[in-house]
């Protein structure tokens, strides 16, 4: 059985290749030696200030070297790092820190007023670590990040493969839930699908051998926030084989900046979240092909949102020597499926090859017959999380045992094609029931987005006296484009069954996706109901 722990692996990398680059952001470079020193200094500070193993350390930060160094400090002290959504307002933030039992928060200076507003509401929260970002001075109740990173190093506790890390996920509705991952399970799960792998049952000598024979690892740029799983997991997986994490300097996504940084830092893998990132990138490189080559890329990896076929084709038309990997995963279930597109052919939107230990079953736990019209739920076995922190009910609902095997069942629904691939329909909790027919919003959204005038779409169900629910779409058009509601409804009917077409289309200036590519479904529900009242 493997015994992996991120902290001990990173310590080994830091000692073996100290001069190599670990993190780059703009003109700033953190070497592996500096990363290692900061990790152990910060861990020593935590221990010297009575922060015991298993204490929770909240990372309330934009993408920055301090995010990854703070993560490493926490693990080196055998504490539990936990992500923090920096879009949260005070009540949401206080809930997160209380629910997660946070004792330490590492925060960017711009968040000082928010931390000050809630720190008295969280009894366990007692240490505040300030990361300067030019927004002001470190408050008297906090300590500068450098006090941790430069703290004298003491003897550190021996890390364990059972040490935990938390990934808080809010999904599309409800309060955030802390997904509990063992170090060994998460490390092994990601290593299994990594571009540069360690032996599954290996140890630290294999890390040293890899670095001495092949040198530092690949350069990976997570264009999405580290506060979410897609960004964080790609970054820590990169570090685990001695790679180089490249971060965008700006705090708001800019496709031109992404293309420029890829070229300037010779990035080999860019990590995005579907169309919200891929569409503007494709637009930039198609409009200014002479400005951006992207030639260093051998892969763009996406997870967390639909990635349309036509957008993949546009990117490959610019740089044909790369592959586009569409990964189907969630915070609770990594590796449910994937598809690979190259210049030789692009995969259909929402079509995936099943990952290892994945099943699609009906309500009687029977595997779906390939090529049937049945819809089933996806279950992932093997290395999966321990559950949700302090929530036994939700843990029991998502992490289920079938025939003696424990599975993660996050609620994703799919059909199984005749060739064994799956057609992903969407999350069952968002399924619309209209006149007895089940409609998955993602399927309708993708149909709408294939129209040349549509830039983005959000589809949801609203109450209807006759049908139970009706399908309503919010649509954002490309600049200068025009199309009528009736034209869009008729267009969807040419691509999907008529009952899946929206009954109403609401045109909006922007769908308003968050920095992780997700939509605010609650906002669209509210606005759709208000809009329907005005037209009834």
Give an overview in words:
- With 536 residues, the protein is of the alpha/beta class.
- Among the domains are: 6-182 and 190-209, Rossmann fold; 431-536, GMP Synthetase, Chain A, domain 3 (2-Layer Sandwich).
- It contains 16 helices and 28 strands.
- The strands form six sheets. The chain has a 13-stranded mixed beta sheet, sandwiched between helices. A five-stranded parallel beta sheet has the order 4-3-5-6-7, sandwiched between helices. A three-stranded antiparallel beta sheet has the order 8-9-19.
- Helix 1 crosses helix 2, helix 2 (32-48) crosses helix 3 and helix 11 (275-287) runs parallel beside helix 12 (309-318).
- The model has no long low-confidence stretch (mean pLDDT 94).
Radius of gyration: 23 Å
What's the shape?
globular
Compute the average pLDDT: 94
| Record field, number of beta strands | 28
Sheet with the most strands: spatial strand order: 2-1-11-10-12-13-14-15-16-23-22-18-17
List the helices and strands and how they pair.
Elements: H1 6-16, E1 21-25, E2 28-31, H2 32-48, E3 56-60, H3 65-76, E4 80-83, H4 90-99, E5 102-108, H5 112-118, E6 127-131, E7 143-144, H6 145-149, E8 164-169, E9 177-182, H7 183-192, H8 204-214, E10 219-222, H9 229-239, E11 244-247, H10 255-264, E12 269-272, H11 275-287, E13 299-303, H12 309-318, E14 323-330, E15 333-341, E16 351-354, E17 358-361, E18 376-380, E19 387-388, H13 392-398, E20 399-402, E21 405-408, E22 412-416, E23 422-427, E24 432-434, E25 437-439, H14 441-449, E26 454-464, E27 468-477, H15 485-495, E28 504-508, H16 521-535
Parallel strand pairs: 1-11, 3-4, 3-5, 5-6, 6-7, 10-11, 10-12, 12-13, 13-14, 27-28
Antiparallel strand pairs: 1-2, 8-9, 9-19, 14-15, 15-16, 16-23, 17-18, 18-22, 20-21, 22-23, 24-25, 26-27
Helix pairs in contact: 1-2, 1-3, 1-8, 2-3, 4-5, 10-11, 11-12
